[in-house]
């Protein structure tokens, strides 16, 4: 997954708009704007962070996951930065990610 993510990031970083057409030039590739937008969107998605790598820097609500063997659960949990503990989750937290922004209302 990291190799794919790195490749997508390289495409996004190297993209240059050629004209007002719906095509973008990337060295060795011609990519449609839709593909580039999809890559940018996928790269904007937060990744799961293992609790063994690092804990959140700030106290607050996060999306949490527990992955143990063939069982996994996802939900919300509150992280207390002062003592490094989690609450509001019913099993051992193995991964976390930032709380997402709410969707924008379409008009």
Ordered list of secondary-structure elements with their pairings:
Blueprint lengths: L1 H13 L1 E2 L5 E4 L2 E4 H12 L4 E2 L9 E9 L2 E10 L4 E3 L7 E3 L10
Antiparallel strand pairs: 1-2, 2-3, 4-8, 5-6, 5-8, 6-7
List the main descriptive attributes of the protein structure presented here.
single chain, 107 residues, alpha+beta, 2 domains
Distance between the termini: 36 Å
As a percent range, the share of helical residues equals: 10-25%
Any idea what the radius of gyration is?
Answer: 19 Å
How does the major sheet shape up? 5 strands, antiparallel
Low-confidence stretches: none
The multimeric state of the shown protein is single chain
Number of domains: 2
What would you call the shape? elongated
Number of helices: 2
Kindly name the structural category.
Answer: alpha+beta
Order of helices and strands: HEEEHEEEEE
Strand content: 25-35%
Could you give the count of β-strands?
8
Kindly report the spatial arrangement of strands forming the biggest sheet: 4-8-5-6-7
**What's the pLDDT, averaged over the residues?**
75
Explained architecture:
- This protein has helices at 2-14, 33-44; strands spanning 16-17, 23-26, 29-32, 49-50, 60-68, 71-80, 85-87, 95-97.
- The protein is an alpha+beta fold.
- It has 2 domains: 2-44, no CATH class; 49-97, no CATH class.
- Strands 4-8-5-6-7 form a 5-stranded antiparallel beta sheet, with no helix packed on it. Strands 1-2-3 form a 3-stranded antiparallel beta sheet.
């Amino acid at each position: 997954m990291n190799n794919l993510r790195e490749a997508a990031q390289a495409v996004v970083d190297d993209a240059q708009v050629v004209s007002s057409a719906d095509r973008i030039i990337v060295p060795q590739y011609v990519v449609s704007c839709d593909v580039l937008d999809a890559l940018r969107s996928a790269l904007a998605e937060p990744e799961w962070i293992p609790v063994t790598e690092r804990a959140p820097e700030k106290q607050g609500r996060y999306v949490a996951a527990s992955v143990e063997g063939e069982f996994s659960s996802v939900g919300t949990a509150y992280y207390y930065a002062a003592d490094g503990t989690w609450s509001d989750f019913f099993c051992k937290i193995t991964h976390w990610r930032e709380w997402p922004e709410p969707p924008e209302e379409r008009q």
